[in-house]
Design brief:
The protein is built from 28 helices and 13 strands. It has 673 residues and is an alpha/beta fold. Strand 6 and strand 7 form a beta hairpin. Helix 8 runs parallel beside helix 10, helix 10 runs parallel beside helix 12 and helix 12 runs parallel beside helix 14. The longest helix has 26 residues.
């Protein structure tokens, strides 16, 4: 299922030091602008926010400029390279000073090590790659950071718990879990009353799916420090896995009330939950407030954009949505995303000229970077539909089926390929999904560009129309060499069978299904029916399922079951979609009997796929990036797509392929010249 937890946010829970209260934003002035990727956005923020340094100088020591420059007691906003360099220089002078005490040198090593690490993170954000793959310059700075922390422990061992917690955080960011756990264990032994290493350790356990151990560590941290906002935030996310909604809200509320630099993330988490539970008004208000509280321009833009999406899709308040998108554009004028979202709002309000203007502005910005360029096919598709008069107008229901056909030039190998691309987003009885309709339209545009003879785009299908488009596609597949079906939306597994969910499905259908009272066909489309629609194709059948999402249907089923049991204790584990169960959010593996038939899952069967914070999900972005490589056969495409998603999600999401190609068969999206 599609989840929303930023992977690196969980990885960097906090750094080492005891916390000092952050200064109010007005006292700090405007935050500097850094070129950060959404993936690293909150990561960097939490590192900085958590490193409120309070290693203690000897109180009798005179405060000179180097002391002040090296202390940097509040790190709750991004540090530009010049500030980092100044701090490293000041700390170096203290380390080398003949009159410096061991206490002063110990702190100077600590602060210099932290700033070497932050320097490395700045390089990572500029490279737009996961930290462990960002190159030798990053590694050199990380090595310098680790060396300084080792010297800090040796020079001022009385503060080793704080230093070890920071070193554990660095190891965690660079996927060295064993080293990180070793350091947190030492930190806990050095200072059993310090909450910080327990929170760092909980993040590692959560990443390893050791949920009960993660919960124990967070409970311990909060018993030691009830005011630890990051522990509250982390535990709220963990309670979400248990389906204990009351406790999720309680921890988010506490994190918000505690304030500090994590309040924006707490508000955003609470907004997501409120939206899923049918309270879009609170979601819109919380995301707006999160944008106002964040010091990061890119975060401000993302939160305002989410508020706009809720106003547009759930509250049906066009003016509120337009105002939110305007604030997003003001915060991040180089981003295509808020222009795209505002264009969609104009389309739905029946303002095609305004929509076209915003799409063109988005297209201009999409040309500025490879990442944003992935949105270009979607933008061009919307412009084409506007020119053709096919845009959805204000007098049509946003829940009605929206079906279009595209065609591409015949590929060089002369094959005939057809595709059906479905994106279900505006579910009638649960909160809408963020990216699914745009994922579908982006993929459809890319397939037409790759030479698929006929691409059917079907958006927001109810059960009746879902069956109809599958029946129609069966006839198209019979006249084709390739038949591909791509589904983006909610999906479930019931007693070992996989189903795709139309937009008119109800929670009650699945609740009664637990007791076996209602057949699953009453509210869902069997994967077997989807496979059958592609079966007549002469050479290749490919079904792509980006549907294992953070699923409110499954969450409701779990809540129903939980009402009849005691509240989970520390030994219980949240549902993860694996093992024996009546209903699960993740798909189960499918047995395929027809050769040259493949099912591509966005993630491993039973696991969670991520929605991401951009126009498309991580899976769709990897699909679009690799689909466009000429001369790349299907097997290589699948391998590279797997690797790209793994890198983009820090291996939290690993696509899976079921089925095999005949020996010697080679298929291409773009055949070689």
């Amino acid at each position: 299922m599609r989840g929303h937890t930023n992977q690196l946010t969980n990885a960097i829970v906090l750094s080492a030091a005891k916390f000092n209260p952050p200064q109010p934003r007005s006292a700090r002035g405007p935050a500097p602008r850094l070129a950060v990727t959404p993936k690293l956005l909150i990561t960097l923020h939490l590192v900085l926010a958590s490193s409120l340094l309070s290693l203690r100088f000897d109180s009798a020591r005179a405060q000179n400029s180097d002391d002040t420059g090296c202390a940097a007691t509040v790190y709750d906003s991004p540090r530009p390279a010049s500030a980092i360099a100044d701090t490293i220089t000041a700390c170096s002078r203290i380390i080398e000073g003949a009159s410096s005490t061991k206490e002063a040198r110990g702190q100077a090593y600590f602060v210099r090590g932290l700033n070497h690490f932050l320097d490395a993170m700045n390089l990572v954000t500029a490279a737009k790659k996961p930290p462990s793959q960002a190159g030798t310059e990053v590694q050199a700075r990380v090595d310098a950071a680790l060396a300084d922390l080792a010297w800090s422990i040796k020079t001022a061992p009385q503060h080793s718990a704080q230093v070890l917690s920071l070193r554990a955080t660095i190891h965690r960011v660079f996927n060295r879990s064993d080293e990180a756990l070793a350091d947190t264990a030492k930190a806990i032994a050095a200072d059993p009353k310090d909450a910080v290493p327990h929170v760092v350790q909980a993040g590692i356990f959560e990443r390893q799916d050791r949920f009960s151990e993660a919960r124990t560590e967070l409970d311990t941290a909060l018993s030691l420090d009830p005011g630890n906002a990051i522990a509250r935030l982390a535990r709220a996310r963990l309670w979400t896995r248990y389906g204990d909604i009351d406790r999720v809200f309680a921890d988010y509320d506490s994190a918000v009330n505690l304030g500090g630099p994590t309040v924006a993330e707490a508000l955003s988490g609470r907004a997501r939950l409120a939206l899923r539970l049918g309270n879009p008004g609170q979601a819109c208000a919380d995301w707006t407030r999160a944008a106002e509280m964040s010091p990061l321009p890119l975060a401000q833009a993302q939160f305002h954009t989410r508020a706009g999406n809720v106003a547009r899709d759930s509250l049906k308040d066009h003016n509120l949505a337009i105002a939110a998108y305007g604030r997003a554009i003001a915060a991040q004028p180089s981003s295509a995303e808020p222009y795209i979202q505002r264009a969609i709002a104009h389309e739905r309000a029946g303002h095609p000229d305004e929509a076209a203007t915003d799409y063109r502005k988005a297209l201009d910005r999409a040309r500025t970077s490879p990442d944003q360029a992935l949105s270009a096919p979607y933008i061009r598709l919307r412009l084409d539909l506007l020119r053709g008069g096919a845009s959805r107008r204000s007098d049509s229901s946003p829940l009605s089926g929206d079906v279009h056909r595209l065609s591409g030039e015949r590929p060089r190998d002369g094959s005939r390929r057809v595709a059906l691309v479905i994106g279900n987003a505006t579910y009638r009885h649960v909160a809408p999904l963020d990216n699914t309709d745009r994922d579908a339209q982006s993929v459809a545009a890319a397939l037409a560009g790759a030479g698929f003879a006929e691409v059917t785009i079907a958006i927001n299908l109810d059960q009746r129309r879902f069956h109809a488009v599958l029946a129609d596609f069966t006839a198209s597949a019979a006249a084709a060499d390739w038949a591909m079906i791509y589904f983006s939306g909610h999906g479930i597994e019931v007693d070992g069978r996989n189903y795709l969910i139309p937009i008119d499905a109800r929670l009650q259908t699945l609740a009664t299904q637990i007791a076996g009272a209602t057949p699953p066909s009453a509210g869902a489309i069997a994967l077997d029916e989807v496979l059958a629609a592609s079966a007549p194709a002469r050479k290749l059948r490919l079904v792509v399922l980006d549907a294992c999402r953070d699923n409110p249907f499954v969450q409701e089923a779990h809540r129903v079951a939980a009402r009849n049991t005691a509240s989970p204790d520390a030994s219980s584990t949240p549902a993860t979609g694996s093992g024996e169960k009546a209903i699960g959010g993740g798909f189960t593996a499918t047995t395929l009997r027809q050769p040259d038939t493949l099912v591509l899952y966005a993630t491993q069967p039973g696991q969670v796929a991520l929605d991401g914070d951009e126009l498309n999900s991580p899976f769709t972005r990897a699909f679009l990036r690799n689909n466009a490589v000429p001369g790349q056969d299907l097997a290589t495409f699948l391998s590279r797509l797997h690797d790209d998603v793994a890198k983009a999600t820090e291996r939290r999401q690993l696509p899976a392929v079921i089925g095999q190609l005949r020996q010697g068969e080679r298929f291409y999206f773009y055949p070689p010249l």
